[in-house]
Amino acid sequence: MLLLLLAWPHSTHGNESVVITIHANQLTGAYQPVWNYFGADEPNYVYARNGEKLLHELAAMSRVPIYFRTHNLLNTGTGEASLKWGSTNVYTELPDGTPVHDWIITDRIFDALRRNGVQPLVEVGFMPEALSTHPQPYRHDFPRGDIFTGWSYPPRDYDRWRKLIIMWVSHLHERYGEGVKNWLWEVWNEPDISYWHGTPDEYNQLYDVTAAAIRYVLPSARIGGPETTSPTGARAAAFLNQFLEHCVRGRNAATGRVGAPLDFISFHAKGHPKFVDGHVRMSLAAQLLAVDRGMEIVASFPEWRNTPIILGESDPEGCAACQGAQNGYRNGPLYGATIGDSTARTYELARKNRINLAGIVTWAFEFEDQPYFAGFRELATNGVDKAVLNVFRMLGMLGGDWVKVESSGAQTLSKMLQEGVIDAPDIDSMATRRTRELDILVWNYHDDDVAAAPAAIRLKIDDLPEQRIRVEQFRMDESQSNAYALWQKIGRPEHPTAAQQVQLEKSGMLERIEPPKLEKDASSPHSGVLNFTLPRQGVALFRLFW
Distance of CA 291 to CAs 141, 220, 353, 427, Å? Predict the structure, then answer.
């Protein structure tokens, strides 16, 4: 912390500086956090040692609740985890067909979430082997072969499926009490592709039956879907459209009445980075276009325009467990800068489409028993937090009301949707204000992961009180809050010593650095200026208290 009085000597960085102006008294609406949703394919990593450590850190980032979504909660198996796989063995059958329910593994998953203060976003799926219409082969062996095996098929008996869900939800309610009423529930994942080997009508039937089973136990349960892939694809858009239509006017397969409950709407948004000319080129435009198209579809239904939207997976690309040169951005600061910029633009798209954005799920967690910094899309590696997690820590400090921001270095949303961030970086900010606090997040983002000179930034803050101002600065960039940089510096050890592990874990924490001097802007009374430089792919948070 640094205690400062407003200092009045004039100082500028010249014409080359990007000027960001924070209008501290111009409030533009209540701030609604949406960054606080995470997820993963592998449910069994949740209760692993490093998984629990990461859950605890997620919950500690902010006062807002953290939600966690995972695939494979109903898969048949021993609970052994592997890439893109998990199992709980909740449903098997005796030779005579008698159902057998086993909650031991699923309890371990939800116990870990609740023990660490994380709220479940319960994805009901996938199909137990004994209920699948095409059970064999069942467990896949990613990355070899087809992953969409027996778990991805409809139930052979919808009544047995319904009874399974009733018994499971009843057990969860009994075990975890009234808090279960605050959980979120949804049905399946990406049913527009091979995650669902059924027709759209069959998915609607699955949704109706599952929702009715959940509501049978928890009448006030909040249920949503359909978690389709990026709606820039014609098939995904058509699936989302027909599902929304079904929930308004379709015949409900469980009740026989018209329509189905829909408390939130979910779809995915993914980019597709490429490796060009020896470096990674991100595709923020593709991710944002998917967000925009999905919001347009929702807004086209008067019945659903005000229904909360949760982007069930919103990521720079589509496969957290896939490796490759094009995914090299994941270890260092570029991933974090992408999160900062994409979050801000997603808010902007929600305002543009006049819809109710409730959450953005980042599909990243951690992978057990994998090499350090192996290039997976994850928040931590072997207990060491990656740089991206520190951007979420910064986002967790925002709160109160939005404040109007202007930046001479910002790219327009329309240009970003059309071209991405290629010609020049996007140097911009978002800010919130509470009673005696102003929080300002600034980023310097570019799609191309290449070296560039730091940006000189003149951060002008209007309407500051004539009081004692305390300024804090937090930073994530190539050298700050970046464990990957330290890991490289100490020789990229495959098996760090105990001392190195401690050092790496410390370097993965969010670093507070000395802030620039808060100076008076001579041209504007009651305004202060912070002059600083921000490296390419860097993110900074300034907190002002009085």
Answer: 32, 29, 10, 21
Is residue 268 a contact partner of residue 229, using CB atoms and an 8 Å limit?
yes
- What pLDDT digit, counting tens, does each position of 98-111 carry? 999 999 999 999 99
Query: How far apart are the C-alpha atoms of 487 and 500, rounded to whole Å?
Result: 9
The model's pLDDT over 395-438, given as tens digits with 9 standing for 90+, comes to 999 999 999 999 999 999 999 999 999 999 999 999 999 999 99
Dihedral (CA of 220, 221, 222, 224) sign: negative
**CA pair distance 270, 294, nearest whole angstrom:** 12
DSSP alpha helices (H): ranges in 63-217? Answer: 104-115, 158-176, 200-217
- Which CATH entry fits the domain spanning 32-395: 3.20.20.70, 3.20.20.80, 3.30.980.40, 1.20.58.1120? 3.20.20.80
The CA distance from 60 to 510, in Å, is 13
Q: What is the 3-state secondary structure (H, E, C) of 481-532?
A: CCHHHHHHHCCCCCCCCHHHHHHHHHHCCCEEECCCCEEECCCCCCCEEEEE
- Supply the CATH classification number for the domain 2-28+400-545: 2.60.40.1500
Shortest CA distance to 112 belongs to which of 66, 169, 165? 66
Which residue's entry shows tokens 């009045």? Answer: 8
